[in-house]
Please model this.
Amino acid sequence: MKAIHYAGGELLTGDDIADAVVHYAEALARKNTSAAVEIPSRLADGSIVQVSLLLGPASQLVAIPQPGDAEEITDAELVGAFNTQAARLGDPAPLTSDGTPDFHEDDLQ
Model:
């Protein structure tokens, strides 16, 4: 589990979800745009609720690993969606069929 520190508060969510939120926030910031997202978060009583976040260029997020034995919150579909949206905002190098980057030395200049 990781705690996302955001807007003076703290949200407890799964490691993969927290990492994907930070990655997506970075991609949004690079494009100077924003997005409203919802993620699952564990409350102090152990229940899980959906929380809304506004991610944008001014978002200051910190995701900190948390000790404890609480069951990890997972949502592979949500993580995949964040990663897909982040990739769409970037300019990734095309890949060859074997998964290696397909670029020429001239592309680096």
